Amino acid sequence: MNAAVRTIAVGGAHPYAVQVGPGLLDAGDALAAQVRGRHVLLVSDSHVAPRYAARVVAALSAHTPARVAVACVAAGEAAKSLDGFAGLLRELADLGATRDACVFALGGGVVGDLAGFAAACWMRGIDLVQLPTTLLAMVDSAIGGKTAIDLPQGKNLVGAFHPPRAVFADTAVLRTLPERELRAGLAEVVKYGAIMDAPFLDWLRAHTAALLAREDAALAAAIARSCAHKAAIVARDPHEHGERALLNFGHTFAHAIEAEQGYGGCNHGEAVAIGMLLAARLSAALGLAAPAHAQQLQALLAGFGLPTALPAGLAAEALLARMRLDKKAAGNGLRFVLWDGPGAARLLAGVPEAAVLEVLRSA
Ligand SMILES: NC(=O)c1ccc[n+]([C@@H]2O[C@H](COP(=O)([O-])OP(=O)(O)OC[C@H]3O[C@@H](n4cnc5c(N)ncnc54)[C@H](O)[C@@H]3O)[C@@H](O)[C@H]2O)c1
Ligand SMILES: O=C(O)C(=O)C[C@@H](O)[C@H](O)[C@H](O)COP(=O)(O)O
Ligand SMILES: [Zn+2]
């Protein structure tokens, strides 16, 4: 294996390895070692498949006799839908996929969540291998086993926990990632610093230019540190009974924004950037973090070229109504991940709706 490849182990009841480094999509022996049966469905999207799917098929086919079929969904969040899900079930049926079949998800978080959910449901669960191709998917969505699709009513409302057998993050593919998507991934990177690693925030501030310039060393360091944080949390709390909820910092606002825009406005990372800032302001309004911390967070996100204001045309009341269907909400009201300042966050129940509305109205 390439010396530049790093391995992060995810522990727990279903342990697996996250490998990160250049050239992994061509590591046919390692990819094929995950295949137990005779059927592979390689799921990708219309931007990624033309660039990388043939390489993965060739790498796999050189090392396994399994039949490899390719399913290509339209690029973009809209594919993470009931229709997209049904399409993948049809592909698995056409392939004749048996219970030992394996789904490979080659793409960003949309492909990972959608293909992962199909793998979770087909015959009540078949093998899944994540091949993340966006920064966001490498540092976040490919790890931890959350799979889901969206409904018009809300993000990720239908899903399952279905951990992958393995994750191979080929960092060489980040060269073709559009600028906007690189920035989106950096939002989730900032999240780790915000909730659990204050020195990482300082490091990100110092390496903003290097990350935006896609310097190999800076990207590799940011990915490794983010993956290590995610791996540690999901190993301790795979089903979000406790601390895993902290990974949802900014997401109550973000998911409301995405759904309210019909999944065609901000991408997920952009919505998370805005959401983290609103959560920081809400925390300040409730007397947790200092207002100055929210301003520092805003400066860092803006430095990465991420949006920090609510997009025009979104009504505060409509966003609040969306939040009532957030998965962290309970019968007794909204629960938010709030901020205690750099490196510390907590889940708080019973957050007054009036305070949330006030933050939304002033954003
Ligand atoms: N399961 C989880 O734990 C988790 C965590 C975070 C986010 N998510 C989900 O992930 C999704 C967002 O994922 P995303 O930001 O990766 O978006 P995405 O999957 O839509 O990918 C972004 C865009 O980049 C393109 N692309 C991907 N890789 C490329 C490459 N190497 N070169 C060129 N183009 C490339 C895609 O085709 C797409 O157009 C959301 O649905 C979000 O809810 C899930
Ligand atoms: O892995 C997690 O747990 C996260 O919350 C990571 C988030 O970045 C991600 O967007 C996740 O899909 C949100 O989960 P949800 O449970 O709020 O749908
Ligand atoms: Zn997220």
TrEMBL record:
Give the 3-dehydroquinate synthase N-terminal domain ranges.
Answer: 72-183
The chain positions of domain 3-dehydroquinate synthase C-terminal read: 185-329
Q: Out of the domains of life, which is the source?
A: Bacteria
Q: Which CDD domains match?
A: DHQS
Q: Which UniProt keywords apply?
A: Amino-acid biosynthesis, Aromatic amino acid biosynthesis, Cobalt, Cytoplasm, Lyase, Metal-binding, NAD, Nucleotide-binding, Zinc
GO MF terms listed in the record are: 3-dehydroquinate synthase activity; metal ion binding; nucleotide binding
What's a GO biological-process term for it? amino acid biosynthetic process
List where in the cell it is found. Cytoplasm
Show the catalytic activity.
7-phospho-2-dehydro-3-deoxy-D-arabino-heptonate = 3-dehydroquinate + phosphate
A GO CC annotation recorded here is:
cytoplasm
Residues at which NAD(+) binds: G109, V110, V111, G112, D113, T133, T134, K146, K155
- The molecule here is called 3-dehydroquinate synthase
Q: What does this protein do?
A: Catalyzes the conversion of 3-deoxy-D-arabino-heptulosonate 7-phosphate (DAHP) to dehydroquinate (DHQ).
What's the cofactor? NAD(+); Co(2+); Zn(2+)
* Gene name of the encoded protein: aroB
Query: What EC number(s) are associated with this protein in UniProt?
Result: 4.2.3.4
